[in-house]
């Protein structure tokens, strides 16, 4: 737990206070099952120190929360290791400004802003004594803010193998994902103007294909050569946006003196 306060002896037009609370836990429920979790909450308040219009415009409250949980199951069948994991993460953000209770200021930003993000990931992996490893994972994301909801889901398949007495390590992965952004359909008030442009009422959909590869070779005397490449294809299926394809190749050499 952490608490801070800063006003520079009341010389600033606003006084800032912040409080943090958080913790982590990890437990081994059995020889095969482990679970970990964490939580963090940060609250901040900016309070005006005078009645002037400038000081009053600086008053606001901010609250952020992050919670996560991740269970893992590990199984062994002979010399093969199976691992199954599930992770969930939730983030929330709330911002409130005391001067946005009326007038033109509220029409611009609103009296209260809030958002929430939920992310879940599931993965399954196999490890063999020969140096071969395989993994399959899937993820889902839901993000909600004022008047907009974004959903994203996808999957990734990965494989790795160690050659030449484990001096050469090669990894390949391919993935697919889809995104959808749509308005929430909430009613508009007189003080909240209708959104236009990219944040308007039109739905947007896109799809991505990814291919990644890495190779690392350990040279004599501890030197290492690493190569990394990626290809990304983004296709817009509905709404505004730009479809594109891009690729990148990186080669790195490291030497220790």
Report on the structure:
The chain has 257 residues and is mostly beta strands. It contains 2 helices and 12 strands. The chain has a 12-stranded antiparallel β-sheet with strand order 1-2-3-4-5-6-7-8-9-10-11-12, with no helix packed on it. It is extended, with a radius of gyration of 25 Å. The two termini are 44 Å apart.
- Strand arrangement, largest sheet? 1-2-3-4-5-6-7-8-9-10-11-12
Global structural class: mainly beta
Sequence of secondary-structure elements? EEEHEEHEEEEEEE
The proportion of strand residues reads over 45%
Number of helices: 2
Overall strand count: 12
CA distance, first residue to last residue: 44 Å
- Write down the overall mean pLDDT: 82
Q: Could you name the ranges where pLDDT drops below 50 across 5 or more consecutive residues?
A: 100-110, 186-200
Helix content: under 10%
Query: Which term fits the overall shape?
Result: extended
Could you describe the largest sheet, including whether it forms a barrel? 12 strands, antiparallel
State Rg. Answer: 25 Å
């Amino acid at each position: 737990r952490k608490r801070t306060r800063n006003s520079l002896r009341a010389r600033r037009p606003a006084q800032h206070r912040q409080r943090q609370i958080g913790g982590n836990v990890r437990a081994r429920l059995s020889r095969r099952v482990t679970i970990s979790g964490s939580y963090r909450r940060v609250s901040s308040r900016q309070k005006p120190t005078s009645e002037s219009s400038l000081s009053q415009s600086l008053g606001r409250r901010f609250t952020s929360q992050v919670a996560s949980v991740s269970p893992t199951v590990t199984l062994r069948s002979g010399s093969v290791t199976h691992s199954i994991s599930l992770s969930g993460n939730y983030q929330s953000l709330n911002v409130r400004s005391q001067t946005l209770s009326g007038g033109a200021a509220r029409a611009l930003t609103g009296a209260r802003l809030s958002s929430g993000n939920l992310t879940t990931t599931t993965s399954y992996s196999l490890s063999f004594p020969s140096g071969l490893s395989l993994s399959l994972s899937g993820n889902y994301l839901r993000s909600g803010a004022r008047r907009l909801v974004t959903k994203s889901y996808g999957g990734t398949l990965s494989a790795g193998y160690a050659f030449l007495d484990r001096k050469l390590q090669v990894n390949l992965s391919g993935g697919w994902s889809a995104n959808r952004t749509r308005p929430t359909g909430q009613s508009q008030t007189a003080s909240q103007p209708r959104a236009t442009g990219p944040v308007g009422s039109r739905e947007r959909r896109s799809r991505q294909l990814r291919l990644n590869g890495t190779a690392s070779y350990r040279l004599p005397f501890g030197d290492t050569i690493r190569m990394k490449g990626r290809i990304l294809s983004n296709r817009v299926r509905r709404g505004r946006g730009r479809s594109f394809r891009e690729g990148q190749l990186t080669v790195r050499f490291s030497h220790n003196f």
